[in-house]
Amino acid sequence: MEDREGTYWLGYGGHGMQRWQGERTWSGWTDVEGLPDNVVWSELRDTHQRLWIATNNGVAMWDGAQHRFRTWKERDGLNGLTARRLALARDGSIWVLCHPGGLTRFDPVSLRPEKVTVPGPDLTHVGLGPDGRIWVAAPHSLKALRTPVRPWIFEDVPAPQEIVDGITSFSTAPDGTLWTSGRQGLGRYDGHAWSQYSHRDGLLSDGIGQALAVDRNEVWVRYSDAPGITRLGLHNQVPEVAHFGSAQGLRSDEVFMLGRDLEGNVWAGGARGLARIAPDGQVRCYGHADGLLWDDQSEEGFFAEQDGTILFGTSGGLARFDPHVEATLRPVPPSVIFTSLQLGGHERLTEKLPHATHKENTLNAEFAVLSYKDPAALRCRYRLVGLDGEFTEAMGREIHYAALAPGDYALEVACQAGAGIKGTPAVFSFQVLPAWWQRWWIRDLGLAVLGMALYGVLRFRTYSLEKDRRRLELAVAERSQELERLNQELREASLTDPLTGTRNRRFFQVTIENDVRQAVRSYLRETDQVRNRDLIFYLIDADHFKEVNDLYGHAAGDELLAEMTRRIQSAIRMSDVLVRWGGEEFLVVSRYTERSQATTLASRILQAIGNEPFVLKNAPMPLRKTCSIGWAAFPWFCTAPDAVRYEIVVELADRALYVAKQKGRNHAVGMLPVQADLETPSLTPEQLRATQITTPGPEASRSAQSAG
Known about the structure:
21% helix, alpha+beta
């Protein structure tokens, strides 16, 4: 049986009923159908119309002749375990980016994989550039394949360094305009010149996780460190932005995936499903209850087929959406009906415009929503016209109002489906009649009598209040002390990270200036004490942390962060400060120390994290995790301690962290100055030169000893 919402109800002999939603509109494939893994990252069709799928455990291709998936894994010649990106070259070859690993090229005829060497580790993106060549992006480079024939040689793309540094992805519009995303904002190349856009142009953050190119004047972005998504349009070269989040109808502010279908709709995906944004701004959401294979979407796991259907990569398999079928199904708005309407405890459900006496001035209403489609996602609101100005979110299916004043009222209840479809409100109108003492002349007379009584009471109370004043002053003083203690606890909570119990960035910003001034004074002051005057900033990042969230869930990730905090805390000194810098990144401010001793603390942290596996309640087996560390010392120049600001030193430590990542992770890299820079005044941060000091982690050290 099919109901009015397109849901099928199946009856089983002796086993009850089952509800089946999404039939024909949604379909999907998992490892049961032959995929090498359920986590799907990317999809494409090659020039032979073969479907390629990148997963957490290799690459799959649908073999139409044998009607099955053909797979390639690391043992079959793939350059890495996890395939994250797919790209189709003009010669028909398929390029696969694995992480960790690198590039693999599949010959379009023989389908033989070939590992391709690219200068620099940690590639972030591969795709077809505006010139028709294969382009690859890395944290500090943007390169293009020189020629489409062997040997595979990549050359630098001429682009400003502020755009290339920190690049995460790029997207080419149909007209050839290139848009790039990165840690320093949004880049645009129109074939002649580069331009850059950041939070100063209306973006919510400079940290852009993905750019989705529409044309030369329009791009959509998702953020790596800010909620929601943004549409940026250029009108006479002036940027205009429109932001979308949960307030505008998205299922969540956390967005992992952006894509655009052939109809011009923009799709945004996150951990709670999909949202489709039409060109007119209308938003419709889809989730598991609508037939979507899995709610958790993968980064850039979007592919629009030429027939109008859409493929979505999820952490539970490959999902397919057919908009043509959906167009034949008329959306049914959720209907609301009242099941009980009581005034003063008397049922008035069947009456039209009932009148209630002043004793019946309480309203108790119960309602139901006639929808079985994703009932958990239904959102209902209500208001009492004549009393409420705005709608109130309904936490349940009951509404209660007490002590209503005489007047005319109308109770309105409206519900909205999880897909964003709004229903017509249900309305119940009624009137509360006034009592005899509530008439206007009685009220005026009562106010006059009350005024005289108040005057007498005030005269009497003046004497009583003076008597109580001294007692109240003592009570106020005691209460003030208690409030001060509570305020101190609130201040402490505002400076602490709730998950790990460490200090947060606000604490760092509040306290760092005092530490910096102390370090500068120690170097400027002539004293016999010449040791332990440095501040050393250590930036610590958990290696491959997202794999834990993808494989075991966010609860396991939170548990891992808490255990990492404990281990780092055990490795540092009492005088050092541990700060959760953001996500899986920590900052250690080592005070009253010597830069010559910096590698010792870095080694202790590497050992504390990497020596022993992590035993997590939310993971089936112990996990061996490592970290990468970048550090730099303040003052940068000992002979000129106030020449370089501490913010630049923290940035140098961040650069050192990226170098550690490039060295294969599980390393600590320190930055120390080149003293010759003092001879050149007013150096910018990019011009500062540094000597790198590398400290391997426990696994890296054991590998080096084994090789020796």
